[in-house]
Amino acid sequence: MKPNQEPEFLKTKVEEIFLLQKQHSLKLRKSSAINRIALLNRILYWINKNQEDIRKAVHADYQKPYPEIDITEIFPVNIEINHAIKHLEHWMRPKKVGTPLIFLGTKAYIQYEPKGVSLIIAPWNYAFNLAVGPLVSAIAAGCTAILKPSEMTPHTSALLRRMVGEIFDTQTVAVIEGGVEISQMLLSLPFDHVFFTGSPSVGKIVMKAAAEHLTSVTLELGGKSPVLILEDADLKDTAEKIAATKFLNCGQTCIAPDYILIPVRLKDTFIDEMKKSLEKMYVSNKKGIESSKDYSRIVNENHFNRIQHIIADANLKGAKIEFGGNANREQNYIEPTILSNMKWDMKVMQEEIFGPILPVVTYENLGDAIQIVNQQPKPLAFYVFSKNDQKVNAIFNETSSGAAVANDCAVHFLHRELPFGGVNNSGLGKAHGHFGFLAFSNEKSVLKQRIGSAAVNPLFPPFTLAKKKLIKGILKWL
Ligand code: NAD
């Protein structure tokens, strides 16, 4: 459904779609793996046939480079679909559980039933991937879905509407475009599951709205993901990996390294290596980064202003710009910017940056660095660079985060055997592969009794003296 229509008309339409899906969701409970795989194959076929349209739409939103679109928008969704197709039959199979002695005579198993009608609210930063990825999990689990893409990426949202219109009937999947008002209108409906990807502040609004109907939620949120560099790290390798993942999508990535923690004596060498990496990646023929086709833009003017404000605030409070700092308002271009001399009262150290600024914070001893990580809200991802595996393990045991990655950044997103998601402020529930399937499934306990009441009636009233003794005996034995 297109945006910008009369609110009353939209509300009625949205409610109609919801009721249509509600009815259809009862039929989908009986759908087989073959039915669902057929739908997943249709998505895969559509994506492969329309790759160029996907690239054009995403690029039109904020000049994201085509190879980056392939790597971060199309590739992960194709992995998700192929993984689900390969494993779905196994995931759907009822899981037998053991029989404790007191349940002798019964049979019990877990049945994975679709939750029903789901709502998927997507962000703008990977507007295709983060809309279609959860949709794949919803379809695999046998749910219907209403998909609300972000209003900030209108070209990709229109493409998603076209894609869903060509693959599905409205009773199975519908796209409803619009901003905050539409999102809140949708959230007022009694969905069976809401899968939200976005900021922690909006995540709270989503969770409150869902609580009205006791709707279950998956919240894929953001926050500040730190990188801790130890004394023994290979700084060239570390800098290259950080540069590639921090400035991907112009820093607008939920699991982008947010800030660096580094021993004082390594700071200058690390910053030099970062500069070399950035020049290697984005500067060719002595032309500056702005002319690079491999570096994207900030999504819109509001975010451009927000990031400029963060840099100005840091500058004012004594931060040193080690690299970058330039911008072009007309293009929403902000140069990769490395800062040092950080203080914790700077905005850049207090909010999720979500842009191409990399603050470098120094530490005197490892204990202080770990304390810094533990004093912040639990991050979506935590990265440690060191050759000492024992130290890495000890650090991972002392800290809490949605994911912990050693000697790399962000790559865990592509690993379909790992759950993807945050903890507390960075999220609730998990996505990807089997974990995505589970998010949209009700794990129903099924117990089948095979013996008559005669065998268990010693536990039924009236509680005679003999029965009381028996119950006490059982309690002692348990
Ligand atoms: P956002 O929270 O502003 O918006 C996300 C979605 O929520 C959009 O569709 C928007 O229309 C809707 N929305 C916005 N305000 C709303 C409100 N008041 N009520 C109801 N719905 C509302 O997030 P964003 O700016 O699109 O994305 C950036 C954030 O998302 C960052 O914090 C980033 O870390 C996070 N993120 C997380 C993941 C993840 O997988 N964990 C992935 C990408 C982005």
Shape label: globular
CATH architecture of the largest domain: 3-Layer(aba) Sandwich
Ligands (ions, cofactors included):
nicotinamide-adenine-dinucleotide
User: What Rg is obtained from the alpha carbons, in whole angstroms?
Assistant: 26 Å
Please tally the helical runs, counting DSSP H or I stretches of 4 or more residues: 17
CATH topology call of the largest domain: Aldehyde Dehydrogenase, Chain A, domain 1
Distance between the termini: 59 Å
What strand line-up does the widest sheet have? Answer: 10-13-14-9-8-15-16
Biggest beta-sheet profile: 7 strands, mixed
Helix content: 40-55%
- Output the CATH class name of the largest domain: Alpha Beta
Low-confidence stretches: none
SSE class:
alpha/beta
Number of domains: 2
Q: What is the strand content? A: 15-25%
The overall strand count is 18
* Average predicted local confidence, pLDDT: 96
| Name of the CATH superfamily of the largest domain | Aldehyde Dehydrogenase, Chain A, domain 1
